[in-house]
Task: inverse folding
């Protein structure tokens, strides 16, 4: 909560997020990459991630996990570049910047790629996905984003996953900004590869991403990688056969902080409890912002509890940088917009953030608007 913070900003962003003092303190412990205690922590994390992602215990053995250094995008690139065979073909369902990024990665790697491109304010069109899968038998893999952080849109991954499975293709899910904060599982989504990272809803600090995978699918990808350092199979094989060893230098401090974050997620009551808190954060924040006259980009029916886009008030007069700086001086850090054709900014509701923080934010936003002499709010 803001009052208990010293020099810390409250990061209302899509990551890195505000984390607990205890998670940050865990980074004070130094480990050698070769140390058995350290490798045990890695194994603890790998097992815990599979448990978080798999709904039914009988399916635990059919799944595995692998950690990959870098930001979340490195893990996305690792999956795209390592699991699609040379003669494979990828269908990307794109309704935002993160979907578009998957296409960019795949094309740069020379992978045969088709895209279902949609407006950023529209959820995935299931009918079109069905049509494309039926028409194009060459498609071997389908990739999509769960919570499109560009807008805050929640895409219908369960329906797409069911469709992809029914058509006998493999499903790659970027659940970067939802895993740990929204209930979902390998079973419910049908994902063969579920990708997320340390600094999103599990509330660790940045430095690595991870993939929970269908064991059999991943095992069959040996030799497909288009990059050595991002070779998903090789990284997994090293961890799997050498008790949690990474191939190269690993972000040891970050890994220890992540283990702490996983324990704190469990102590909070797991994903259900965290989801409930994020929902309460988002509801408190949006109700407050609406009472000040702000309008959201998305309708509530597709809005995630992760991040929310707001139209600029008085778009001709509103200066985002002034607004941002004034809120930052009050310790609240918000996020610029990323939507192509609408003037928006974003406010995240994830991290060590609580509804009381959101009430304080809204009060400060009200003051800042007064200061900026913005009163009559109009949608963009
Ligand atoms: C955060 C995020 C990523 C990864 O972004 P990085 O900046 O590379 O960590 C990928 N996809 C989505 C949907 C995200 O929210």
Result:
């Amino acid at each position: 909560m803001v009052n208990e913070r010293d020099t810390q900003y409250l990061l209302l962003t899509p990551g890195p997020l505000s984390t607990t003092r205890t998670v940050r303190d865990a980074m004070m412990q130094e480990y050698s990459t070769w140390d058995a205690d350290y490798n045990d922590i890695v194994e603890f994390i790998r097992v815990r991630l599979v448990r978080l992602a798999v709904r039914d215990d009988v399916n635990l053995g059919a799944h595995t996990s692998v950690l990959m250094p870098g930001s979340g995008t490195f893990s996305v690139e690792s999956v795209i570049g390592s699991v699609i065979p040379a003669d494979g073909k990828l269908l990307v369902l794109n309704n935002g910047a993160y979907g578009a990024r998957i296409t960019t990665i795949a094309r740069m790697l020379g992978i045969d790629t088709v895209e279902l491109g949609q407006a950023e304010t529209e959820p995935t069109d299931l009918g079109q996905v069905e049509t494309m899968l039926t028409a194009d038998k060459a498609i071997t893999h389908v990739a999509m984003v769960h919570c499109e952080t560009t807008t805050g849109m929640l895409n219908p991954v369960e329906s797409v996953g069911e469709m992809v499975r029914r058509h006998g293709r493999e499903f790659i899910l970027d659940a970067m900004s939802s895993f740990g904060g929204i209930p979902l599982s390998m079973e419910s989504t049908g994902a063969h590869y579920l990708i997320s990272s340390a600094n999103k809803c599990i509330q660790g600090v940045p430095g690595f991403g991870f993939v929970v995978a269908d064991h059999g699918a991943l095992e069959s990808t040996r030799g497909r990688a288009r990059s050595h350092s991002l070779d998903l199979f090789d990284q997994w094989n090293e961890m799997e056969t050498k008790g949690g060893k990474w191939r190269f230098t690993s972000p040891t401090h970050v890994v220890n902080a992540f283990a702490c974050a996983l324990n704190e997620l469990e102590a909070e009551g797991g994903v259900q409890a965290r989801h409930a808190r994020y929902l309460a954060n988002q509801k408190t924040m949006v109700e407050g912002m609406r009472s000040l006259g702000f309008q959201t980009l998305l309708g509530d029916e597709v809005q995630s509890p992760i991040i929310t886009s707001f139209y600029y008030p008085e778009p001709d007069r509103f200066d985002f940088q002034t607004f941002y700086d004034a809120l930052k001086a009050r310790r609240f850090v918000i996020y610029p917009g990323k939507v192509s054709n609408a003037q928006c900014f974003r406010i995240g509701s994830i991290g060590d953030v609580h509804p009381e923080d959101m009430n304080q934010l809204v009060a400060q936003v009200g003051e800042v608007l007064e200061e900026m002499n913005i009163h009559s709010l109009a949608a963009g």
